[in-house]
Design a protein that fits this description.
Layout: H1 2-22, E1 24-42, E2 45-59, H2 66-80, H3 85-108, E3 114-128, E4 131-144, E5 147-153, E6 160-166
Antiparallel strand pairs: 1-4, 1-6, 2-3, 4-5
Helix pairs in contact: 2-3
């Protein structure tokens, strides 16, 4: 009895499995249209270049004392020529002071010091937009068994495409 039941169960399973296999198959459908799905993508990048800029460095002139000395001596000699007695001494001292000031100004205000122009490298960077067109796939419209379908595919299938057909009963 057990053997008959086991054989009946095996036969039922075999019939069901062949019915399930018969309900699915691959076939070909006619492609009606294919349109690429394009997308604009910005990939910004940095562009840098080195420019040379003129930079002026100002170096102060070194102060000299020669003008003060020469001016003081000349002023003292001129002051000594004026007046008598204590007046001459005062005129000599005043002439020496004024001569020293004038000599200092003449020597240390004359152009000369250090104005130096140098070329200094400066790097300048800019962000530049770089637009690229990227293909995200293909929108494929196809016809199978009198009905029209659409699918997004990663490739262009050509004039016909393989489709998987599955038939299942409605409950």
């Amino acid at each position: 009895m057990k053997t008959k039941a086991l054989l009946a169960f095996a036969a039922t399973c075999a019939c069901m499995s062949s019915a399930a296999i018969a309900a699915e198959w691959d076939d070909y459908a006619r492609v009606v249209s294919v349109s690429p799905q394009l997308e604009q993508v910005n990939r910004p990048r940095q562009e840098c270049r080195t420019e040379y800029v003129a930079v002026q460095h100002q170096y102060p002139a070194q102060r000299g004392v020669g003008g003060s000395i020469v001016g003081g001596v000349a002023g003292g000699l001129l002051g000594n020529q004026v007046g008598n007695g204590n007046g001459r001494t005062a005129a000599t001292a005043a002439g020496a002071i004024v001569g020293a000031i004038v000599g200092d100004r003449m020597e240390n205000t004359a152009p000369g010091g250090g104005a130096v122009v140098e070329q200094q490298p400066v790097q300048r960077c800019y962000t530049v937009d770089q637009w690229e067109t990227r293909n995200n796939g293909y929108n494929v419209t196809y016809e199978y068994n009198g009905r029209t379908y659409s699918a997004l595919m990663p490739y262009d299938p050509g004039q016909r495409m393989r489709v998987h057909v599955a038939v299942t009963p409605r409950p």
